[in-house]
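Bumping with the actual sequence this time:
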Amino acid sequence: MDTMRDRFGPVVTRLLDEDPRVAVVLAEIGADAFTDAARRHPDRVVNVGIREQLLVGAGAGLALTGMRPVVHTFASFLVERPFEQLKLDLGHQDAGAVLVSAAASFDWPAGGFTHMAPGDVALLDTLDGWTVHVPGHPDEAETLLRHAVAAGDDKVYVRLSAQSNAAGRPVDGQRFRTLREGRSGVVLAVGPVLDEVLEATSGLDVTVLYATTVRPFDTAALERATRAAGTDVVLVEPYLAGTSTAVVNDALSHVPHRVLGLGVGRRELRRYGRLEEHVAAHGLDAGSLRRRIGAFLGPGR
């Protein structure tokens, strides 16, 4: 199976061919995927070199001329390093762009902590007006990329990951999907953690929601689920643990509730190892999730 990042180049190349507003801005990373596209559209495929602040600034400039820029590099270089440009060049100027990241939280452990960005979604939460897509499969990534580019002039972040569920599911860029229904709690799985969550909750009397678009947060789906399953909610996110806890608390502020936020911990893992070892170390494998979810919901759930 191809990866989400494998899908990115061909999908955006087709969008370049289809829509004269679309432009791609790169900072060396991913440039090989657009070699042919750059020959056909030399004025709309821009490689700024290893200059991430300029990457975002150039994207914002294109947006201000009426273009729909797709801006791509690793998450740590796309959100963290040029954060001031996200805040000012895009946010302050009301300019829209599609930011597409790779490497996610710890997809390339050999790259070290400089190439890890588990706090990217939490950091974007400090800014106004961002849509955030977190696909869990290459098919979902393709659909959400097309949604993002077609989303007028909005600010959109598409978080691609090397981690993937075994099968893609229909996604619409807005709503959560209900995959299981129970009466003893709600477990919300985000993007590529779904398969581990489904295994971890097998046999448990819980509702499982699946989210690939987390901002805006589908509060209506959560409220519907909690009316039937109760207001104990477990969030399982493939980035910083607790990133969406405040959103859930706001959604359920009118009723007594409990929230457990599971995800990537703050402690830096300095023995980089393999991706699967990071998943286990952060307690995001199925066995660890089952223990943690079971302990939170209580015996007999």
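The tokens above came from a reply further down the thread. The radius of gyration is 19 Å.
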